[in-house]
C-alpha cells in the first residue's frame, strides 16, 4: 500500500462525504429546520476516520455489517452529540452513510497498492462528486420554481428558506396561484395562442422545408452548393439584428400584434435548421427506390409523398419536435411584436406579469411552471429523437 | 432525352426550393440589408407610423324635423409630423337618401358622396357636416346610416423611403455611446461564457461517458436548462438570487458564509481582497455569465459526449497496457479526439453568445455593467426610440460577425488542407 494513495483516498472521500451531507443539510434547512453550520471540521474528521477504519477492517467483516456500523456511528455523533435533530433527518444521514460506505468498500490495501491508484481514486470520487453536484445545481432552480408556486406571498416573505408545503390544506388553497393565473390573468388563452403559434409554425415549416430539403439532397441545379452553404451561414445570424427592420416593416403593414405575423417570422427563422436536418436524412435514403418510382412514371411530387415521407418519419418528427420547442420558447420576437394582452404568447405573458412590481412571485412561478412543463415532458418523452437531432447541429440558443 | 430530363429536374428543383428561399430572403436577408438603409437615416420610433387620414362618423337627428339627419365626420390627420396630400373621401348613402346643401369640395354620384379635401398638414382636424334628407318620404334608417363606414385615401411621404441619408448614427455609435465599454463588456461576456460552457461540457461529458446507475436519467437532467423556456428560467434565477428574500443569499447567511446579502444582479463591482490584492470583480456581469454557462453547457456536453462515444475502446485498452493512468489517458487520448468538436463548439457558442439578448435582458435589463451590444440595439431602438441608432448598432454586430466567420472558415480551411 502506498501512503500517498491512502492520503488521497482519505481526503477525497471525506470531502465527497462532506458535500453529500451538506447538500442534505441544505435540503433540510429548506424544510424549515434550523441548522446554522455545516460543521466542516467534524464531518471531515469523521469522514477520514471512517475511511481509515474501512481500510483497517478490510474484508474481516461482512460489508453490510461494516456499512451499517459506520452509518450508525456517524449518525449518532452527528444527530445526537453535535446537534439534536429530528428522526427523519437522521434517517437521511443514515442513508447517505450507507451509500458512502458501500462506495468506499471496494478500496482495500491491495487496491491502494496498484499503480496509479491515487489517480484512480481521485477520478472515481470526482465522478461521484460531479454527478451529485451537477444534479443538484441543475435541478435546484426547477425545484424552487415548483415549490414557490405553491406558497403564499406572506409565507415567502417571513421565511424565504421555508420550502415546506402544507399538504393538509384544501386543494383549492394549495393550487391557488394556478387558479389565479388562469382566472385573472387569462393564462388559458395564452396557452391556446402559444399552442396555435407553435403547432402552426411546425406545419408551415415542414410544408416549406420538405420540398426544399429534397431538392437540395437529390436534384441537380445551378446554385445548389451555394444554397447549402448559405443555409448554414444564415442560421448563424442572430434574431437581434433582424428585429428593427422587421418591427418597422411589420408596423407599416399592420402585421404587428397579429399571431399570423409571428408565425411568418418563426417559420423563416426555423427553416434553415429544418432544411439542414432534413436534407441530411434524405441523402441517407437509398436512391434505387426513387429510380424505380421514376420507371413507374411517378412525378417528383409523387416521389416525395409516396416514398420519401413514409421513410423519413423519424427525421420529420424530430424536426417537428424541435421547431415546436423553438417556437414555444421564443421570446424576443413575441416581446417586440406583441403589445396587446389579447394576443400574448405564454412567454410574453409571463414577462408582462413580471413588469408589474405588485405581482406576487408565486403567480410568476406558477406561470413559469405552466410554460416549462410541456417542453420538459416532450423532451423527456421523445429524448432519443431529440438528442440525435441536437447533435446534428440544430437548436439555436 | 437525358437533356430534357435534366431540364425538368432543374425546373422541379427551383419550384421546390422557391417558397423556402423566398420566405428566408424576405424575413432574414432583406432585414439585414434594410438595416444598412435605416442606419443611415434619422428615424425615431414615432416616425415609422404611416400618416393616415381618419374620419369618425356621428349621426344626429335634428329637432323639429324628423325627415332630416345631420352627419358629422370628425376628420383628422393621424400623424403629428407629416402632411397628407390629395385626401380623397368616399361614403355610401342608403338608397332613399339625398344630401342637401353639400360642401363645394364634394359631389354625389349614384348614392355615393365623393369629396376631395386637398392637402392636410400635420395634426390637421376638421368637423365636416352633411345634411341628409329622405328623397321619397320613407323614414331614414339611422342604424343603417351609422354602420356604413367612410373610406379615405391620401398620399404621404414614408420617411423610410426618402433618400435623405446621414452619418450621424455611426458617429454617435462610435463616439457618444461608450462604444469601447460596450465592446469590452460584450467580449468579456462572450469569451468567459463560451469557455465556461465548454469546460463544463467536457467535465459532464466525461462523467456521463462512464457507466453508473441512473446514467440515462442524468443525461436528460443535464439538458433541462437548455430546453427550458428562457423566460421561466431567468425569472426563477432572479428570485433565487434576490438580495433580501432570495433563497441563495438567505442560505449563505444562514450558514454564515457571508455576513451581508449580496445583490448579485444589481451590483456592478464587488471588492475582493485576494491575498492582499484589492480586486474589483464585475459582480452582475459575472452572475449573468454564470447563468449563461448554466444554460448553455448542455450543448457542449451533448456534442462532446457524442464524440467521446465514438472514440474506439481499443485506444484506452492499449494505453492501459502501456501503464497510463486516468490523467494521462485523458490528456493523451480523450483531448486530442475532441479538439475538433471543441473548435466547432467554440465558434458556434462564441457567435451565439455574442448575440445573446434574452438572457441578459430578462436578468438585469442591461443595468449594472451588463450592457452588451445586442442589449444596446434594443435600448437605442425601443427605450430611447431611435430606430436609426438601433440599426447602426445592429450593423456593427453584423460586421463583427462576418469577421468572426471569415476568420473561422479560414482556420477550418487551413486545418482541412493540413489533413
Protein model, in words:
- The complex is a heterodimer of chains A (397) and B (419).
- Chain A is mostly helical.
- Chain A has 20 helices and no strands.
- In chain A, 76% of the residues lie in helices and 0% in strands.
- Residues 393-397 of chain A have low confidence and may be disordered.
- Chain B is α+β, with helices and mostly antiparallel strands and 419 residues long.
- Helix content of chain B is 55%, strand content 18%.
- Chain B has helices at residues 2-39, 142-147, 168-175, 179-208, 215-227, 230-241, 247-254, 283-309, 313-321, 326-354, 358-363, 373-383, 387-418, and strands spanning 53-62, 65-77, 84-92, 97-100, 106-109, 112-120, 125-134, 151-156, 269-274, 277-282.
- Classes of the chains: A mainly alpha (397), B alpha+beta (419).
- Chains A and B meet through helix 6, helix 10, helix 11, helix 12 and helix 13 of A and helix 1, helix 4, helix 5, helix 6 and helix 7 of B.
Q: Layout of SSEs?
A:
The complex is a heterodimer of chains A (397) and B (419).
Chain A: H1 3-29, H2 40-57, H3 63-82, H4 87-104, H5 109-113, H6 117-148, H7 153-158, H8 171-174, H9 176-183, H10 187-218, H11 224-236, H12 243-253, H13 259-283, H14 287-295, H15 300-311, H16 313-329, H17 332-337, H18 346-355, H19 361-381, H20 383-391
Helix pairs in contact in A: 1-2, 1-4, 1-6, 2-3, 3-4, 9-19, 10-13, 10-16, 11-13, 13-16, 18-19
Chain B: H1 2-39, E1 53-62, E2 65-77, E3 84-92, E4 97-100, E5 106-109, E6 112-120, E7 125-134, H2 142-147, E8 151-156, H3 168-175, H4 179-208, H5 215-227, H6 230-241, H7 247-254, E9 269-274, E10 277-282, H8 283-309, H9 313-321, H10 326-354, H11 358-363, H12 373-383, H13 387-418
Antiparallel strand pairs in B: 1-2, 2-7, 3-6, 3-8, 4-7, 5-6, 9-10
